[in-house]
Structures are given as structure tokens and as C-alpha cells.
């Protein structure tokens, strides 16, 4: 009986090994197909690089036109206004809630220090 059960176990192990080999072959075939599709996509991107360059140059020229001197002045004015409001908000916060403001600054400094180490 032990010979029969040993033969039965070996047969089931061979069946599992055969199934694993078939699964591995299917996975390899799927991987080959994925790599083939990826190669086709990369080839399409390379072939379309001339179109990409034209689109990029058009966008760049449009952006250059949009960023005129007036736009720069408006942006600088907006930054100044925001910074003024920010300073006013901090001053108000210090006057009305000094300990809360101190705790927020300490927390922000801790986070900055923790990120700086990494």
C-alpha cells in the first residue's frame, strides 16, 4: 500500500509541476505580447516626434506672447498684495492668539526640519 500511495503522490506532484509549467508559459506569452505592444507604442512616439516638436514650439511661442511686460507687472502687483495680506493676517493672529500662533509656527518648523533631514 505504501508503494501505491507513494506513486499516487508522485503523480499528483508531477501534475502540479506540469500545471505550473503551463501557467509559466502562458505568463511568458502574455509578457511577450505586452512587450510587443510597448515597442509599437514607443515606435509611434518616436515617429510622432516631429509633430510633438511642432506642437511644443507653437505652445512655447504662444506662452512667450502671453508673458508680456503688462502681465509681469500684474503678477508682481498680485504677489505684493498677497504678501501684504499675509503679513497683516500674521500680525492679527499674533495680537489675538499669541500662543496658538506660536504653536503653529513651532509645528511648521518641526515639519520643515523633518523634511529637511530626508
Instruction: Tell me which oligomeric state these chains represent.
Output: single chain
Radius of gyration: 33 Å
Question: How many alpha or pi helices?
Answer: 4
Q: How are helices and strands ordered from N to C?
A: HHHH
Q: What are the low-pLDDT stretches, counting only 5+ consecutive residues below 50?
A: none
Q: Please provide the count of β strands.
A: 0
Helix content: over 70%
How many structural domains can be distinguished in the coordinates? 2
Class by SSE composition:
mainly alpha
Shape: flat
Average pLDDT over all residues? 76
Percentage of residues in DSSP E strands: under 5%
How far is it from the N-terminal to the C-terminal residue, by CA?
65 Å
Largest sheet data: none
